[in-house]
Structures
1.
Amino acid sequence: MKKIFLLFFISQLLVTGQQTPGSGQYESILIENAIIHIGDGTVIKMGYVGFQDGKIKYVGGTKPENKYDKSINTNGAHLYPGLIALNSTLGLAEIDAVRATRDYDEIGPFLPHISSSIAYNAESKVVESMRMNGVLIAQTTPRGGIISGKSSIMQLDAWNWEDALIFKNVGIHLNWPTPYTYKRSSNGERTIEKNKNYIKKVKEIKDFFKSSKSYLPNPKPINLEYEAMRNMFNGNEIIFLHANSSKQIQDGILFLSSLKIKKIVLVGGIYSYKQKDLLIKNKIPIVLKHPHNLPSFVDEDPKIRFRNAKKLVDAGLLVSIDVSGSMERMNSRNLPFYAGSFSAYGVDKENALRMITLNAAKILGISGNYGSIKVDKSATFFISKGDALDMRSNILEYAFIDGRKVSLESHQTKLWKRYLQKGRNNKNKR
Amino acid sequence: MFRKIVFIFLSLIYSVEKSYSQDYFPENAGVKTSNQPYNVFINATIIVSPDKKIEKGILIERDGLVVEVGKNIEIPKNSILHDKTGQYIYPSFIDLYSNFGIKKAKRAITRGRSSQYNPNREGFYWNDHILSDYNSINDYSYDPVKSKKLREVGFGIVNAHRENGIHRGTGSLIALSDRHTDNYRIIKSNSTEFYSFKKSINSAQSYPTSVMGAMALLRQFFLDIEWYEQKSSNSKDISIEAAIQNKNLPKIFESGGRLNLMRALKIGKETNQKFTVVGSGLEYLDHKRIKSYGNTIVVPINFPKPYDVSDPELNEKLSLNHLKEWNQAPSNLSVLEENDIDFAITSKGLENISDFIQNIKKAVAYGLSEKRALMSLTKIPAKVLKMNQKIGELKKGFYANFLVTSGPIFKKESVIYENWIIGKQHVLAPNDVVLNLDISDEDLLQYLEKAENAGYSVEELKNVAKFYGLSSEEIKILGKRLTNAKKELELKDEALKKIEPKKKFPVLPITYPNTAYGFKEKPKYSNIVFKNVTAWTNEEEGILKNIDVLITNGKIKKIGQNLETPKNHIELDCTGKHLTAGIIDEHSHIAASSINEAGQNSSAEVSIEDVIDPDDISIFRSLAGGVTTAQILHGSANPIGGRSAIIKLRWGESDEKMIFKNSDKFIKFALGENVKQSNWGSNSRFPQTRMGVEQVFVDYFNRALEYGKKWENYNSLSKKAKGTIEKPRKDIELDVILEILKGDRFITCHSYVQSEINMLMKVAEKFGVRINTFTHILEGYKLADKMFRHGVGGSTFSDWWAYKYEVIDAIPYNGPIMTEAGVTVAYNSDSSEVIRRLNQEAAKAVKYGGLSEEEAWKYVTLNPAKLLHIDDRVGSLKEGKDADLVIWSDNPLSIYASAEKTFIDGKIYYDSSKIESIIVDIKLEKNKIINQIKSSIGKGQKVQPIVSNTNKEFFCETIDK
């Protein structure tokens, strides 16, 4: 009997097959008896979510009157909005050490005309491994240079990049120069000095912005770089300011707000708590560096990165999580645990969740459709056996993107099942 | 001002002096007179040696030697009398460590991206960095400019050598006299041997790439010398022969840093070499251990310069340990004196040699006795040089190398007037009253006139001339230079004022370690009863709720319900808390000064135990994550890596005391991309494929067997028979491999894909070896059954993949699949970041693969303990085991849990409730020192940029920089 069940299981696996994106939502579905984490900080302790044609039709603590084609009783599992990974490079590289697979860093200092979306690999084995942890949406972002290019918002279950696109070219990424430089002294120690080129570098940025701004009213002949700044200047695209030190943050924000740029988002922001007032005054959201990072200096609080979020959240700032860093693509699937860690150090659980759902959607400007479990929003959510921010209980049963049931399989689960079976067969033989 | 003017006059006089030539040399410039007059110094306080002082004494010099010294001595008739009333005479200083006059080595030109594995030289030792055959005298030429600078601060003799190589060959003893030729200046051409941990720059030979490699190389070299002396074969090795010839020379080891000092002492002890070790100026931090070795230490006095503290944002990045060193280092010498450590002082590392006397005076102000200061500059270096019958004192028959000073030499206001070297006067500042000179009034007036025009008062100049009796010619020349000279002196005066520290600050107490988060006092046993705790025993009892755990003197004494609290024990209410064994990381690279010896495809001869860095902040951060024990592994740069160190994270203790006592010993092997050098451009070293990797192991195992047989044969011979044949060469590397084959050392092997894993098991089986642990082992799940049969454990990452090609099939279910197959599985960090949250990594085994929480927890505690063969002492809560414990705020696998207290041997090494106040203390202490720095900085004084210990992150691939 057991064997038969397993055979069935395996054949199912082959049919649903990893990598095959879910087809459209053809029947209406009602999720029953779930703990619904709305994403805005509230929870419905035991409730129902109904969705149809990719949209949420019902959210509530009582069973809706409308009939649904199908219902899924979760028996008290947790329902969450799809998690959103900000400042990620998902789909832009496959294997770090293999140069041929790396597509995130173009050469040149000012590349606002570069768009990450078209390099996004919808077949990436790294991308598919996000889904099994609840990460369903990502901002794919180019790296390098002073202006790295434009990021786009992708849903992580698609046939191709166009299919994946939620929003193309959401914003421009500006890497603010570092005011300090590191050198190695003769006895091998690292010394820090003021960056002598800082002013020069900042001036380059200022010049570029000035030139592009003066170009815009008379764009003939076309200049690709300057032209690509237009939507940012007229408020249709966000400028993502990548800055970590207090001085970088201050100088960057003062500069950008002096140009009356409307949509500014701070990315990284490791020391942004030192510029709280400035951030509050200019209403600037922060995509905060995830906590699995060492303190920058030996004297710092060993847990400083874990405690970072609380300081900003308590100040009333709009905060999400930046997944960039060491082994960033594969580790993006740990996004729920980044939020969980921030929660362990002071942010309450639902607010920690909010950082990677509604806050992230708000920052990207897609909160009208994504980021929380609300009627008329996209049915992009997942169901986990337990608390999704804790690795013990982040065990997904279902995930839906725009109402499509998506596969939770991956290269990893496929190998797991194959070799688990191999081991068990061997054991039976013995 | 007055005196300094004359100093310039006199230095000019010497420039016209005839050079002093050797008596058997032909003389063509004049007549050869040999009857030199005596120089007799009277009425001075003569410091014959640091412990012998003669008031109003007489010192007689002739032909460069002290003829007589004492009180009532007859003065020979043909004498020049020097009245030194009120002045002091000291033996001049000796610098044991100098590069004076020696041409620097030329940097080798490297070709291409591949490393060079072979030596450039033939007929010498196999490693180009052993330059025992080199003698610095070949590259020596007298440097009058530097000599003058050294004389000005009191040096008479320096031990010069070329700072190049691990064995640097020999140095030469040079007297700093402008008034002699090299025939006299070179006191000894072959004075001492020199050693260091730094490679020679005139060879690009790759080995050794690390300090531990340099240590291994030196050990092997000393063994090879022994072997060579008795071997019968005809092969020649010029380096070894030179070393044999120089066997009895004193040996000076430039360690190049605080931790390296201890390493040099260790090497010296092991190889029976009495090294005199050049330190770092931070010896006060390790004085107890230094004392226990008994070596003489050569101590630099280049106290840290004040930091540039002008930018508050930058100041935050300035590390407390550097600030403390700035505050504490001036007390270094007095601490060494207090602890009765033999030390000499060197001018090494001083940017301006002119700071030398200033800094000695500073050390004296910080408590160094003047007597000890003098000893360390005279008698002790003389003793090290085995020249204590010739130099360092002013006894009869000694070199007449001495200083004439205005008062006790290390008094703040004292001035060195003269530096006599081999009986020849070098005037530094004017004072001399030479009684037999005569000067005509006419000349004097002429001089005065000119000098007056240059802006000196007539009165001042009259006195000068009277005092110093100058010839008319001299006055003419000098008159022209007076104006310039005056300006120069004024500048120098200004400069002197700037150098002098304005204040002496109270020395801040040392902490353990002497960094941020160091302990004021080392932790002591906490005898505690943990009440009402949830205890994760990792034993049959499983997870016990509402239980009490008693720890006494470092051990778990009792686990049970309602335990009584014995005398002298504290009761700790742990309601709602969880108590576990401390986390054990099977694969870590924290707390080490180097990780890879990449210079060869096998480096079994190196050991991480040699290079533990007990001050690495990662230790503290790991404690904050509940880690108590870690295996510090060699990296994966080569198929056979180095020996590893198992340490307990006893923050604040020395490297030696961190080592897990009496544990089995391990070695790192590695497979795959790293050992093939796939990802870093070098492609000349064997192996470049997995096929080649196999052969490296087969080759080494075979060679080790052969080697073992040779020794077995030899050892089985009678004493008499042994005498008739050549003793086999001792080879540290093969000794280590042989240990593996004998089952005395265990392999942890870095591995990724199944083919290579399978291969190594097969190779090992052929040689009767069981691989102990495959680490990383990302494809372990593919051959877990084979692993089980072989009996190897797996220490893996919870969920790493996609970082290189060979991890393409890595899955997070790897651990649980191996567990199901019966393999002992651990999760490791291989990262100073991940090590801080291994509890969460263990929790991933619950998520991926559905392990029970109890089993998952063992992945980071009991199972790694088993893999390291220390599960009889740590890894679970069991009566009698070490009290290496963690109190968690919550279920330790929960993302919301944090370590509240971490115990090792029943001592609290981390207490989260204290962190907040410690952080405040750090800030206060830093501010205090920064304010001291601000108030110490004189106008225009040089400052140094902020030094920050940022993260030192080592991974498998990290090579020493």
Note: Residues 302 and 349 of chain B are 6 Å apart (CA to CA).
2.
Amino acid sequence: MSSQETPQENLPAERADDEHGAVAVPGEKDPFADPGLPPHEHRIQDIDERAAKRSERTVALLFTLSMLSTVAFIAAFVAIPVDKSIYVFPLGRISALNFALGMTLGVALFAIGAGAVHWARTLMSDVELADERHAIEATPEVKAKVMEDFRQGAKESALGRRKLIRNTMFGALALFPLSGVVLLRDLGPLPEDKLRHTLWRKGKLLVNMNTDEPLRPSDVAVGSLTFAKPEGLEEHDHDFQNEIAKSALMIVRIQPDDIKDKQELEWSHQGIVAYSKICTHVGCPISLYEQQTHHVLCPCHQSTFDLSDGARVIFGPAGHALPQLRIGVNDEGYLEALGDFEEPVGPAFWERG
Amino acid sequence: MSTSHDDDRRKAPAGERVADWADGRLGIYGLAKANMRKIFPDHWSFMLGEICLYSFIIIILTGVYLTLFFHPSMNEIEYHGSYVPMQGQLMSEAYASTLDISFDVRGGLLIRQIHHWAAIIFLAGMFVHMMRVFFTGAFRKPREINWLFGFLLFVLGMFTGFTGYSLPDDLLSGTGVRFTQGAILATPIVGTYISMFLFGGEFPGGDFVARFYSIHILLLPGIMLGLVVGHLILVFYHKHTQFAGAGRSNKNVVGMPLLPVYMAKAGGFFFLVFGFIAMLSAVASINPIWVLGPYRADQVSTGAQPDWYMGFAEGLIRAMPGWEINFAGHTLVLGVFIPLVIFGLFLGVIALYPFIESWITGDKREHHILDRPRNAPTRTAFGVAWITAYMIMLIGGGNDIIATSFHMSINAVTWFVRIGFFAGPVIAFIVTKRICLGLQRRDKDKVLHGRESGIIKRLPHGEFVEVHEPLSQEQLHVLTAHEQYEPAEIGPTVDENGVERKVKAPQKLKSRLSKAYYGEDGQIPKPTAEEYQEITSGHGHH
Amino acid sequence: MKKLSARRRHPLAAVVVLLIALAATGGIYTLVAPPDKAKADETAQTLTIEEGQKLYAVGCASCHGTGGKGTTDGPSLVGVGAAAVDFQVGTGRMPAQQPGAQVPKKKNIYSQAEIDQLAAYIASLGAGPTVPTENQYSPEGADIAEGGELFRTNCAQCHNFTGKGGALTNGKYAPTLEDVDPKHLYEAMETGPQNMPSFPDTTLTEQNKKDIIAYLDEVNSDKSESPGGLELGGLGPVSEGLFGWVFGLGGLIAVAVWVAARTAKARKS
């Protein structure tokens, strides 16, 4: 009892535990003793045949209702056109077929269930019965027999004695799943620098997402919001989704005096700034632009960025500012990119740095 | 064949002959002997698990139907089906075939809605079922493994639901998948690789629908089916728990036999659940993907949420501040990674709770009588605190909807969630424990002094007293049937020879926890027979 | 139409019909009556602006300052154009009742004639977007599917998939677009009221706007269908989850209580 090596079960805590079960002293004088199962009381159906008959009719009625409902289901399936809509108060204008099929199927099934349960509740015996429980643990004799069998088997296998067999077998078993792991290699390419580049590069025009026309500075008014994609990217292109997921732009125009961040102003064209539309948190297209505050909010997790201050994070779970695209105007007067984004767009990742 | 049978056999009715045939090959009589009249106790809360089982079956049935029409492909096509507002739009085949199921396949919309409503109810049912098991202590020996099976079913159900929600490739689910991809990227070291392998390259790529499809219809449900079967076998094997009552002990189970009552009730309940969900699907729309539009990586809608069972994870993500550490050319995205870790720990702690509690009590006996939650105040308080944290995060996951519905600032709601996640569980723990102790005191009072009858009696000398009616024998038994543990003591740290004994930290922790659970502040000592006799013998002459 | 036919037996129906008839007569008269030359128009225009100025002095000047120059309580109105006035006053947002995160929509207290006068006055302060003609905003001849795609690109991020509204920062919000007059939808896109950015014709063409209006008319108006049944607010998984818990699981638990309950015993007597 004095050393810290004392086995757990010898500690006082465990000894006290052994007496846990002690409920009020059992015995004849126990005022809280279990009175035992109460005598069975009859239901009205048990003593009154008319009541039992009524129950029988109710159950039969429910089963009949189910049959009728199934017939109605088939009728509705055949008769109601798939595109017919009806007005049902208070549901609104809904599909007639969906409503009819759902209700008839629902009633057909529910009535079977209700009939069965009513039958069980009113007509089947409701005398409570008791089952004895038996300990799940094996008796010591059984356990001893199992242990003996195991020892015998282990001995006959000689696994413990022939170490060479044992070790090579474990080695083989440990190695072979590697083939399965290797097979997964071709699920996808290696990341390389894929997350670092977008379609933007010097001279690419900013194309209005709505009209497919290249944008001029005069198209972008103060307080307006425009979405743009790189010139040459079309919705029908097979890699459109992957590319737009990285290169989508959000363009706003801010009075140059209101732009607080120096680099932002430098990278803008007369107050026209182009930011990545992809949130730096987990990549939702962020574009809830408030034109008076210049805040832009992500609808997914409410990261809020200040577009007048380098798009820095002012609220929410995003970890860094939205990347800005450096833009200018080409000889023909169209807005163009002056290079790719200088940092990876979208969510941060381990290699981002 | 019949010529080889003896006369007895030939006279047996057809059903019996079939059974004989099967018994000769499967040994069904031995099985039926133990189980045909197996007793199941009746209580509505014992049917929560049945709701889950039946909705699982419904999901499988309707899911098989949906696979007949769904095309798990991300090939872009132009839509020319019957839904006008999508005419000519580019979309994946997955989305187009979901539109077809909804508008061109007769009954397709109904089956889709049954599938989705059943999934919502399946997960909600598992949550409530799990809490019922938790608060009544039904997870104690010998049912810890079944508790884990159930827990795994809940977690796998979450992911099966999530992969299913992603299949139609609509704008809402695509946003959810984008989030998943962003979260994977946040995983230190391996994040980018896992993302590239899962999506077959960059997001969104052209593979994830097909891959999620095989996960959703084969891998996860296959595992779940196995776990469900194991869960049910263990329920049969352990026999069901029951509440204390007249004639109900730790050594028996009282109720109705499987054949016929329970078979009719349980079988009937399957039809009730199926019928109910079918009617629900007739009247209430769920996930109307046609108004959501096909997924485009540059489009989004406000109110982008996952289904409710992922809402808790969504809340963690939304409430987390944007911490990010850059060092040595690497980025540690704590703003996303910490919520992922908390998500796992938070679920893990409830999974491991049975083992923690049995470590504290050191109890190695089987328990088949359920606790009333009040009689395990610390456990109940812990459970309520856990649910409180869960619910607060659920609110966090819907913070934008809450903000607009109740005209509040979304920032204020987020701050409430941030603070509430820490303060809420503490308050809930304290309040719940006090309520439990109060209820225990009331029970004790009832046992010792009887039930307040509401009848006022005037005594000859003018005093007014309220008549207390003594409880029935059954009530007395029920109110005192619970066991009360003693707190574990470490004992003196200095032995009789004056040598100091070192006590290991786990022992100290265990002792402290045991005291919190079963010490003076942890429970109200239940009335003893002596107390009762003393008071009742005096009371008679009141 | 359904609403209209349902109300035709209303006691006031006759009065309404009479008023419409009178208005129509007046309208036809102005159309048929010979135009009184440009000069008369000009005089009328001046008169309108004067009327507008009077209304402005009473209802708007306290915040927006005399001559629409703006004060600390309200922005300058020079150059916002008639469309902005028609939207703000027509939807009841202006005059604002009280300061707050955002000025809500409320019952409009001005007649359309008064709004036109106000708009004319403000337009006279500086050129800006004009009130669109019905031809511009009517959903006739628009491409609904195209409108849907445009809506999801430009609008859904704030207003939700079908324009049910959504939250913005610090108590601001994007309002629901249900049953908003097409003219007001058009004006809102054109002018960008409050914190909403504008979508001028250079970034979102007239036809684009028309398509968007047609899409909203299809998915978010009286005549919109919800094939699956109750729309549950059209808010997505949050309301669906709540409904599933309360009515789905709640209903099933109620059924379970019935299944498990003891059947009533016969009275002992």
Note: Chain A has nine helices and 14 strands.
